[in-house]
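Re: Re: token formats

Sure, here are both.
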Amino acid sequence: MRKTFITYTLFIAAMSAFIALRVSAGKALASERTKALEEDAQDTAQTVEEDTGPVAAETTQEPADPGVLASEEEDTGDTDDREYLWHGDVEPVAPYSGTAPRIVCWGDSLTVSLDGETAYPDVLRELSGCEVVNYGVDAENTAMIAAREGGLRVNVKATVIPSAPDLIPVFLRTENDGHVFFLNNGDGGVNPCMIGPIEGDLQKLNGSYYFSRRKKGERYVVDDGTQFITHAMQDAGDGDVLVIFAGTNDLPDRKTVGNIIKLERAMLEYANCDRYIIVGLTYAGGIPDIDEVNKALEEEFGDNFIDIRTYMLKYGLADAGVIMTPKDEDDINKGEIPASLRRDYVHGNRHYHRLLGEQIYRRMRYLGYLE
């Protein structure tokens, strides 16, 4: 009996030891498997992060709120190697001359000021403190603008100006025998004008032009081909800075943009101006080749050219503090200036003009035209 008891006791002890060893081995194996799984998970997470970015940022990000400022949108990773021209401190590439210039703005309805306060020339006046002259006229193409400025010569056919300030018909043609469109939609610097040495005023009545001298004087015989001199041409100064925003009404394409460049060059040459800004076109709806057109202008004029369309597409809404709408997003995707910056299909609203005025001002400072 005692022997049997001892044998049973030894058997129980052996079984307990065996079970303890199995448990210990199981724990060790489980620990090793857990460690391996953790290492695999870390490797997987690292691979995903390297391929697509941090997983946590992707899985925890909340859906974008459609009613946010454009500046709050997620960074797409696109870079703009000329962003320094649009934002931040201005670092001039040329020394400031030390004299406040007069700024003369030439253009069409995109330059016209409706209230004397909110168009881009008004913004330039506010920011620069300079005298700013606005020679914008509705519906004019580049040739019409150049004719008022002097870049496209306008000639008078032979006539006689009487001694009295009477109204007489005059016949005007451009240097390439084209039509003249003075006074169709505004004066734009035409009057008071000069024919030879005689100062007077031009009028358009029933589609024809008439001239009257301002003061009584001697009768004057006008030779054929005498240049018609507008007020703006007489008033031009050597220190003027020219802003030319022309071409929208030409509806140019990649083949005809050279005509705009030629006329704008002629305007600069007539004014003997080497301080100027050329503003790029913005109306993509009417100018399918607008990217190529603006590229040609940039290649011709370099840093004197402002691609304001590209700026407004990328930064306009954010810089204006305007909340992007679905319509804005659709416009941007189509390459159109967003609707929140326009008052109709082509003309800008107060936000548009504020942004344009600010960017022209920045570029003038960058080029050393302003302090």
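Second one below.
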Amino acid sequence: MKRKTEKSELIFRIVAYFVLIVFALLCVYPLLYALSASFSSVSAIDKGSVVIVPIEPQGDAFLAVITNNMFWTNYANTLFLTFLGTIWALGYSILGAYALSKKRLLGRKGFNFFLVFTMWFSAGIVPQYQNYLTTTEVFANLGIVDLKWTVVLAMGMNATNIILLRNSFEGVPSEIEEAARIDGATELQILTKVYIPMSKATIATVALFFGISRWNGYFWAYKVMRTQSFSWPVQVYIRDFIDTYTNISGKASGDDVAAYAATHPDYSAVSVVYSMVICAIIPILAIYPFIQKYFAKGVNMGGVKE
């Protein structure tokens, strides 16, 4: 028999759906605005007429981005930083989480305490910057001058993700590990054949966290690679373009803005910025739907300890 919905429950559902719809619209609107601004004319952008749909549509701004070799060089740098940075960070996070999940580890409580302590009290920007400088000096002594490697290796630590993986590994039944040991499995085989396959949801979630942070990483790449524009990720290139050719940040020279407008009369520099933003988020939009199914399951498995 179908239960009759109570009035209070009905009100709650209406309010919940209303809040979710408003939140969804707030999330979607920036993307719609970026699309509209990238295809709108110079006059529409200057007058602030763009709201949701393009005004006086044109595709010259997107064409300018597509034919911009420097933009795609920096785009490739972002792919490099994201791919290798995610693999590096995920690899040793799995190793660290596996070790911390073992009760037989000597000093386990102390290691776990110091790991959590870094979440409570951050060292701050200055020590982290010194870490980058030291890493850069080590690479220079090895003959490595491309500072992309500094960002890849020095940004690998994340205590939250290690804790998620540790909790997930602790949820694996010990009987399965004991059976693997009886069959002669080594420690590495137990990790790769037992723990990793049984924690795929959490690993996929942590990989998503690492990948998005590397893809969106701007601040430290900007600080470390100031003089190496050929190594910039696309986010730093977009920020440099904004600071040079638009009035968005208030840092651009009036002469540079006027010169760009004079040499590119068919589209606005702001439209170019939004076109770059759209191109920059395409990989995340393409990959996220395939990983989304692991997201809630992975966070629940890694975030809740029975």
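The chain has a mean pLDDT of 84. Residues 77-303 form a domain with the MetI-like fold fold (CATH 1.10.3720.10).
- S.
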